């Protein structure tokens, strides 16, 4: 095979498909007229195309279409737009944040603002715990400071004030008397 | 892009799933056949065909509707098939008894029929040996009858590459089957 035939054979595939440009097309045609070997080569390429087309594809299994349809249905269902879901999804973090805030506020309120502790805004260290025993009417039977204020007279004053008060609202749900309760009292400013 | 493809795609994007079923009905035979010719295995071809349509459905929003839908769909199928073949340690052996042979005329001529049967087997075996990139181009041209431009679009390569791959594929096959 000479160099000219080699070059032409590189173009034969494109020639077979009609994809050569005009100049290439003419070059191949002119060569084929005078070259029986390249004609035979082209004929073989044509045969191959024909044989490739005749290689049969095995038919899909009988339930293939059904399986394909089922799989697609799953996909459709999975991706079907759910109008309320995005709205709910946005609400979930908001609801969680709100719940956390409520719990914090509630626990703070219960801890710092016990019913007996009216001095809102006082820090924990500016008050003193008192254990009281109440009778059935909420009157103070006995009272003990959690610790001393450091001043005997102030201790007495605080206990005196406590004993002078009634705490019927602290008896709710309690059983048996005297009922023991714990209160917090604000300390006077000069003791801070 | 075929008008019916464009209309159906529009409908699918609006949430009409039946429109995608119409697309599947239009293309599944061709997609299956193309993949089968590459993998030579029915079960694998069925799975890959299924995956092709699932991927197409998922990616339909991103499809550039100025381009041919079939080329886009085929590209998905070919990419999935190539990835599948890469993952396989070795290609499956094929049962070639299923080969259907030519026309009744050949059946009427037993000698010719036998010759043809041998030739078909030989070509199929040699096709399997072709590198995937050459084989794919050959299948798209010969079986799918795509133009070079369509093949280039489908595979994301240049027309020149299509031409050179086709030429190499045909000459390799010709040498293997008929000799130099």
From TrEMBL, chain B:
Gene3D superfamilies: 1.10.1740.10, Winged helix-like DNA-binding domain superfamily/Winged helix DNA-binding domain. NCBIfam families: sigma70-ECF. This is RNA polymerase sigma factor. The keyword Signal does not apply. PROSITE patterns: SIGMA70_ECF. It holds the Pfam family Sigma70_r2. Transmembrane segments: none annotated. CDD domains: Sigma70_r4. Belongs to the sigma-70 factor family. ECF subfamily. Residues 24-90 form the RNA polymerase sigma-70 region domain. GO terms for molecular function: DNA binding; sigma factor activity. It comes from the Bacteria. InterPro entries: RNA_pol_sigma-70-like (IPR039425), RNA_pol_sigma-70_dom (IPR014284), RNA_pol_sigma70_ECF_CS (IPR000838), RNA_pol_sigma70_r2 (IPR007627), RNA_pol_sigma70_r4_t2 (IPR013249), RNA_pol_sigma_r2 (IPR013325), RNA_pol_sigma_r3/r4-like (IPR013324), WH-like_DNA-bd_sf (IPR036388). PANTHER family: RNA POLYMERASE ECF-TYPE SIGMA FACTO (PTHR43133), RNA POLYMERASE SIGMA FACTOR (PTHR43133:SF51). One of its GO terms (biological process) is DNA-templated transcription initiation. Keywords: DNA-binding, Sigma factor, Transcription, Transcription regulation. It comes from candidate division WOR-3 bacterium. Residues 122-173 form the RNA polymerase sigma factor 70 region 4 type domain.
């Amino acid at each position: 095979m000479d160099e000219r035939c080699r070059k032409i054979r590189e173009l034969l595939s494109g020639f077979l498909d009609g994809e050569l440009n005009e100049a290439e097309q003419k070059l191949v045609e002119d060569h084929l007229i005078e070259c029986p070997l390249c004609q035979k080569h082209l004929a073989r390429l044509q045969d191959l195309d024909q044989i490739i087309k005749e290689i049969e594809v095995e038919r899909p299994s009988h339930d293939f279409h059904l399986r394909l349809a089922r799989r697609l249905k799953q996909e459709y269902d999975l991706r079907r737009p759910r109008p309320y879901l995005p709205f709910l999804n946005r609400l979930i973090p908001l609801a969680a944040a709100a719940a956390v805030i409520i719990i914090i506020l509630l626990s703070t309120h219960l801890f710092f603002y016990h019913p007996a502790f009216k001095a809102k805004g006082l820090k924990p260290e500016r008050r003193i715990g008192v254990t009281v025993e109440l009778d059935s009417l909420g009157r103070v039977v006995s009272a003990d400071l959690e610790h001393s204020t450091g001043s005997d007279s102030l201790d007495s004053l605080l206990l005196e004030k406590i004993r002078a008060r009634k705490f019927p609202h602290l008896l709710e749900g309690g059983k048996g008397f005297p009922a023991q309760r714990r209160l917090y009292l604000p300390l006077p400013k000069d003791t801070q | 892009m075929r008008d019916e493809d464009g209309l159906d795609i529009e409908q699918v994007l609006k949430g009409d799933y039946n429109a995608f079923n119409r697309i599947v009905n239009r293309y599944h035979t061709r997609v299956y056949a193309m993949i089968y010719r590459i993998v030579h295995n029915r079960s694998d071809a069925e799975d890959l065909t299924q995956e092709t349509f699932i991927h197409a459905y998922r990616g339909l929003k991103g499809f550039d509707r100025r381009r041919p839908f079939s080329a886009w769909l085929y590209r998905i199928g070919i990419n999935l098939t190539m990835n599948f073949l890469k993952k396989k340690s070795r290609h499956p052996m094929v049962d070639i008894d299923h080969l259907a042979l030519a026309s009744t005329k050949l059946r009427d001529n037993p000698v010719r029929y036998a010759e043809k049967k041998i030739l078909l087997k030989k070509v199929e075996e040699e096709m399997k040996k072709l590198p995937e990139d050459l084989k794919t181009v050959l299948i798209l041209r010969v079986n799918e009858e795509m133009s070079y431009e369509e093949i280039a679009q489908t595979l994301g390569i240049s027309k020149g590459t299509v031409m050179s791959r086709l030429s190499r594929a045909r000459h390799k096959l010709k040498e293997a089957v008929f000799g130099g």
